[in-house]
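Hey,

The postdoc asked me to send both predictions to you directly instead of through the lab channel. I've kept everything plain text so nothing gets mangled by the mail client. Protein one:
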Amino acid sequence: MRNGTEITNYVSLIRIGARAVAGLPLGGGALMEACGLVERAGMPSRYRLLATAREYTFLQNSEQLAATLAGRVGNPRVSPEPPLWPLLALLLLGWRDRLSVERVMERAVSLGIETEVERGLAIVAYLFPELHEWTADVPFRMPLWERTLAVPLAARKLAALTNTESPASEASALASSSEFLEGTGRQFRWRVGGVSRRGISHVRSGLPNQDAIEYWASPDGDTAVMAVADGHGSALCFRSEAGSRLAVKRAVELFRKFATTIRSGQSVSAIADRARVVLAEELTQSWRAAVASDLAAKPFKPDEWASLAALEGWKGQRVVQRHPELAYGSTILGVVATTTHVLCMQLGDGDILLVDSEGETRRAVPKDKQVVSKQTASLWRRDAAADLRIHIHEGADLRIHIHEGSGDLPALIFAATDGYAESYKSDRDLMESGRNYLAVVRNQGFDKVEHRLVSLLDQASWSGTGDDITIGLISRFDSENVTDFDTDYSVARGGSSSQ
């Protein structure tokens, strides 16, 4: 293998660093000290070992850190840069006597990444055979051919990719989007807005609007966040309009805080892991706490119990008695947009659409990868944090590491409850609406879109299922002249937008 001697030397450096800190208490500080020792001993700067370790210090639980790193190493869809296998190896070599492989796998199961963690541990154990004894208790489910053929190939490929990367290309990849924007002389600004409309079916039946929306943008336009929620229509969820309002309120508070942790030059994987492990948990737990407070202030009323019994019987009453948060059940869609990244989070139905500067539109979470399961994804469920789907769009090096697509930051992002998609005859027509919205923004201005949304969503409700419809929009503005789009502005009508 090319650079084989060099790779062997780096593996040896990692072993030396692990031995040097083996007696220290397990923690982020000790792991960073080990990384510093390895770098000073000769590990090339392109490994970004110490910088990457700093990005993962937010994980205080060592088993969770091991599971997260192994999951990234074992996921073939995750970019190999910066490499995480040296960091995982240092952690396992230095403290395997204090790390429980059983608890690491329990964490993996709770995060829904058991297969990736198994593969990641097998890869690192191939590079460092002394870990075989520690991984012996892992109940590997991968086929024998994968362990004997695919894992060694993957391990060698990861090591080779790191060593054949040139310093020049590494420096290019680390350029921040802020520097990129300064270099092109563009003025960057996010605008955000949105509208929620009560569906015609709810007007006729006397039901309230069960959707909710909340958003915020920083005064300088560098950051924008929004949250859209759809309260469940089931009779069991008789306070879902309150649940959706609580969801968007708590989400925006947490998104604003999370946006301050996103720094230029951070790896996409580190941001995604913080979102998946920290933000998702904070969001679901914060919502449950808000529901508990609301319920304590406003206990269920006799007429609510009576209505529930009439529609769902005594079984429905018992379910809500055991799980009172079910009455507040809601989905949540969220977006955090900064000058370098766009973070999208989705739990349940609805769509987050990304529109590039040419008007091409796609889902942040592809439809065929959404959770279509035996149970509806909802904030009220105990495993809601694990069900949240994460998408990161990076603009710094014009690449997307999580999903394929255009590398530049989106020109327009919109999050919509499922009532919006249901007003279209086809998915193709829905995707075309992204181009039409962008045309209105560019040709008439962002404020014009907000003004038009009310009537457009009323039309959509009439032409669709009659459900509540909510749309939140985030748009990127700059000083460059843009080409006008020759298109019809009936962006929210059912059927073809050119009708």
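Protein two:
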Amino acid sequence: MLKGYSNERFKQRTGVGCNRTSRETCRNKFKKADQFGASRFIDLDDPRTFDEALNNVTSIFLITGYTVDMLVQSKSLIDAAKRNGVTHIVHLGAFTREHDSYATVFAWHQMIEAYLRDSGIAWTNLHPNMFMQNFLSVWSIKGGLYSAYTSKAIGFTALEDVAEAAAVILMEGPEKHSGMDYWFSVEALTPHQVAETLTAVTGRKFTAAVHHAEGFQNDAAQPGSAFEPAYAKGGLELFRQVEDGRMAYVGSVKDDTKKILGREPLLLSEWAKLHASELLEIAGG
């Protein structure tokens, strides 16, 4: 939740130096030092742990979990941040280009953003569209088959771009980024265009199959899924509303990567080159 780069690592990654210190929080107090170095224990389900975790912290990168608990967790953390003198919160939200959004997860993020804006703490909201990294996880392309839940184009962004932008925003601080909404959707592609791009980059044949939106909810309900039922329902609503046009803006391009980082964002073809070995391994060759 309080996440970023060490100063040296950040400078190596971006070429930008700074005098801010970053720490990560961890829910397992016994493993945090070995895994994360300079870190602090926090239990998002127990606000009593917040004050110690936020002591002398000036900025927070707020990343929500995949459950409805994200609402009360974020609300409680924002309250604690104000109580402890935090001056800037960067929130990782959703691609809510239209205010009148009622797909579950999108609306949840809008509620968090509304509470954050009303808190009096300087805020910055990041609005990524679909992460390309999903091809390596929830949209796994086993056997070279990309299973999509809408036939329409969807906007994509590389997690590398969003992560680097978040780090820069945290380092440069509220003086430059307070009250800003930044968007990350570099290109809009249909399922078949995705398959064609992956084929061209890797040299391995990829294909796409379009399933009904209900298929996402069924797949998300399988054992070992990272999604709780309410969150999976949000995925169903998203794909259904993209397909029927109510959320057509999910297939639009709006990207602030260059404004923040001074460079062009990664296209899917460029991202796929970086992850070609992983894509081929998942595809089975």
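Summary for protein two, as requested: Residues 229-244 form the longest helix (16 residues).

Thanks,
C.
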